[in-house]
Amino acid sequence: MSHYISITESERAEMLKAIGVADVAELFHDVPADLRFPTLDLPAALAEGEMARELRRLSSKNSDVLNYSCFLGAGAYNHFIPAAVDSLLRRSEFYTAYTPYQPEISQGTLQAIFEYQSLMCGLLQMDAANASHYDGATAMAEGAIMAISATRNRRKIVVAPSVHPQYRGVLRSYTQGLGVTITGDENPAASVADAAALVDNETAVFIVQSPDFLGVLHDLKPVAEQIHAAGALLLMVTNPIALGLFQTPGMVGADIAVMEGQPLGIPLSFGGPYVGVFSCTEKLLRRMAGRLVGVTTDLNGQLGYVLTLQTREQHIRREKATSNICTNQGLMALAATIYTSLMGKTGLRKVAELCYQRAHYAAKAIGNLAGYEVLEQGSFFHEFVVRCPRPVAEITQALHAQGIIGGYDLSKDYPHLGNAMLICVTEQNTKNDIDQLVAVLGG
Amino acid sequence: MHTYEPPIFELSSPGKIGAALPDAGVPETELPAHLLRNDDLAGLPEISETEVVRHFTRISQRNFCIDTGMYPLGSCTMKYNPKIHEDAARLPGFAFIHPLQAEETVQGALQLTYELQNILAEISGFDQVCLQPAAGAQGEFAGILVFRAYHLDRGDDQRDEVLCPNSAHGTNPATAAMVGFKVVEIATDSRGNVDLADLRAKVGPRTAGLMLTNPNTLGLFDENVHEVAKIVHEAGGLMYGDGANFNAILGIVKPGDVGFDFMHYNLHKTFTTPHGGGGPGCGAVGCKEFLADYLPGPIVALKEGQYTRHTPAKSIGRLKAFKGNFGMFVRAYTYIRMLGAAGLRSVSEHAVLNANYLRVNLDNIYPVAYDRTCMHEVVLQGKIKGAPSVHTLDIAKRLIDFGFHPPTVYFPISVAESIMIEPTETESKRNMDAFIAAMKQIAHEAVENPELLHAAPTTAPVRRLDEATAARRPILKYDQAAIEALLSK
């Protein structure tokens, strides 16, 4: 019996007697007898101290961004997380609760989600945000599916090749049974304008990212006009930290806006859990998948919060639901809420400026190195493409030996760029870190 | 403790900030004026760290959680979350590694992933496990996409139907529809099993597969599971196992042995990664060898002493960016390694023992939906003799006053006034006796003073909430004027 079980031997005997069986094994008589109680070939159980040692041993085999200086981004970012975020996340009132099905005793979770929805709408300048999706990529795929349903008979999706390659992968996985066409990204060198030119009266949605996968900021106002003129919707993928400074989906006139919320106080954690921020215009609200929290009053007229518009959801509409999404990323949305509150309008702008200034400083310094060329000089946020004199894998190996986690190797996703590395600089990279990177690259 | 806490926006004053940030320390580059946002981040508050911490601490106190009491939410498996898990997931080498780092720099994380894949395969009797799906519903989605890919790959392209018993979770039919399948509902027989006659009538050359939760959402192990699998397989269909109720059968039976071809695991339910107020979860999936080529990627393999990632040859593709919810892998791995084989079996034995103990103590007051030995949850009905005005919802709300989180109510939808109770193995007999006493007291009140139930809860931070108004006139983000209008109504 494990230390998680709170029943004694004698209590167990009493309970079995009450049930009317002699042994616990008898409770499983519905399970086919020949298959009952199989042997499980598992490693021997460990005591807590032994387990802690084993976990430390495994974790110390990894190169982490606390001990290495990290210039890797490509969709997951190493930002500063104030200690207050995790301190509040570790309150078990938050992390050991479940979906707030009983609103009267779940006001903490509900209020936090309501504030999350409000903060995300403020950041994005959009009308409505839901209680979150699994991650940025799945939010984008569900946004595309929502656009198909909103535009009725249109079954073509156009996507710019500068949208994160893994997001485009997820988009294809999600839609493979739905009889839709996805186009626009066949040529990795195509521009946003090239892709937008494919939008026609069969197109449900145009998907574009800014800052895009290669770090470039786009002015999407004219793009939105063009897309809307064709009767299609615009889905904008963006980055929450960039929104501290730059053009928002609301300003552009996007119909749907999604982003990976990980930069908002969530650790890199080897890829998850993260949080998919999903927002849309008022017009599309009732087509949006996932949980929503709204304000109401209780019997005494006091303000309270509830899950609302649940009739869109799978537990009521079953096969007619807008999506099968059931869980949200509650705890991660809470992290984003706390982070965004701590930063507030001044802090978010400051973090964005720090990223921008340090990234541009790094880009200039690397661009001055012999054999290296920075492809985008002007409008990028905190990531930029560097053409390198040797294969990127060789360079990142050399960097690792000097305590540096290098950039993302673009040779597989964007072969036309040659030996190209995507370098990310955040507020976590000091001037000293950047100078060291430049020294090793040049050395 | 329950004091009203205003929305955070009402704590804002111009000029405050809750984080200390450095100076850039580099020469300045001009910002591109034409690309800047136009509103000075007007929708965001300005608050100090002190105020933020107090705000969220105070709202946390308006939440019920496992650490405050029994949370017998059927089909959700709200068991105790061991504390070592939280420390484990926050070790620097787990929490602060980038998903795109070179494999040789993350061997420890890949090893943990690989070992967890193998352990889950062993527990369930499958050949290959992929940990990528982010939630049970996404695991289902992976499974039905794999079924589609398998049939199409064999040129078997007329299979456009998925069978779902009417007791299935809503995610099952929604998943099948998302993949483009037509959903065909299968009836339940008088013992709570899949109705074999209805199944035989509806299965056929158009059947891609059947989605079965076993033990099912009636709390019962389907006595005919072998026969169900045989019927579906003979028609050329595949068997999908919804692993939501896997907590009842750890070390008791392997789903792979009773005819399932594919299954998802809810790591957040069975393997105690905390539910987090709705998530994150992990909906890892396992399958038989003949479907392994279609799994989503990446999957971790061990080659010449090095852990590497690969995506299967005919993969349905990736279901999310990067690898999956790695933080959940760490917690589930820790749980399983600390329990071992005997500990896991003990989990299921106690989960089932506890549910049956509640069943025999309550079924003479609240009619049990199916009078059989149950698995880790029991479905009762909120139909109290002599209390016609009392409904399941009233009973649920009254339980709050006794310090319990209510069970799942009105699910499964195939049972009228259903109350689905899942105590889990971590509840003590003392707690269950208190829960039984509360349920008996409520039944007594229902007859003597039903108004008490209609008015419940009375001890919660708020009274019963008006959900209809919330849906009719949705206020989904902070809007001071709209909130004031609502309150002055």
Instruction: Write down the secondary-structure element order of chain B.
Output: HHHHEHEHEHEHEEHEEEHEHEEHHHH
User: Kindly, what is the distance between the CA atoms of the first and last residues of chain A, rounded to a whole number of angstroms?
Assistant: 60 Å
Q: Rough shape of chain A?
A: globular
Unreliable residue stretches of chain B? none
The CATH superfamily of the largest domain in chain A is identified as Type I PLP-dependent aspartate aminotransferase-like (Major domain)
Average pLDDT confidence of chain B is 96
Helix content of chain B: 25-40%
Low-pLDDT regions of chain A = none
Average residue-wise pLDDT of chain A = 96
> Order of strands across the widest beta sheet of chain A?
2-8-7-6-5-3-4
Element-by-element helix/strand order of chain A: HHEHHHEHEHEHEHEHEEEEHHEEHEEEH
Q: What would you call the shape of chain B?
A: globular
Task: Work out the helicity level of chain A.
Answer: 25-40%
Q: Supply Rg of chain B.
A: 25 Å
- What is the CATH class of the largest domain in chain A? Alpha Beta
User: Per CATH, what is the topology of the largest domain in chain A?
Assistant: Aspartate Aminotransferase, domain 2
Rg result of chain A: 25 Å
Domain Glycine cleavage system P-protein N-terminal (chain B): 29-304
EC number (chain B): 1.4.4.2
Protein name (chain B): Probable glycine dehydrogenase (decarboxylating) subunit 2
Pfam family, one (chain B): GDC-P
Verbal overview:
Chain B: This is Probable glycine dehydrogenase (decarboxylating) subunit 2. The complex is a heterodimer of chains A (443) and B (489). Chain A has 443 residues and is an alpha/beta fold. Chain A folds into 3 domains: 1-39, no CATH class; 69-80 and 352-442, Aspartate Aminotransferase, domain 1, CATH 3.90.1150.10; 84-339, Type I PLP-dependent aspartate aminotransferase-like (Major domain) (Aspartate Aminotransferase, domain 2). Helix content of chain A is 36%, strand content 14%. Chain A has helices spanning 9-19, 48-59, 83-89, 92-95, 107-124, 136-150, 165-175, 192-196, 221-229, 249-252, 314-317, 330-367, 392-401, 431-442, and strands spanning 69-70, 128-129, 156-159, 181-183, 203-209, 233-238, 256-260, 276-280, 293-297, 303-307, 373-374, 383-387, 404-405, 408-409, 420-424. In chain A, strands 2-8-7-6-5-3-4 form a 7-stranded mixed β-sheet, sandwiched between helices. The model of chain A has no long low-confidence stretch (mean pLDDT 96). Chain B is of the alpha/beta class. Chain B has helices spanning 49-60, 84-89, 92-95, 107-124, 136-153, 171-178, 196-202, 225-234, 267-270, 326-362, 392-401, 429-448, 450-454, 467-472, 480-487, and strands at 128-130, 161-165, 182-186, 207-213, 238-243, 262-265, 285-287, 299-303, 306-310, 378-381, 408-409, 418-421. In chain B, helix 5 crosses helix 6 (171-178).
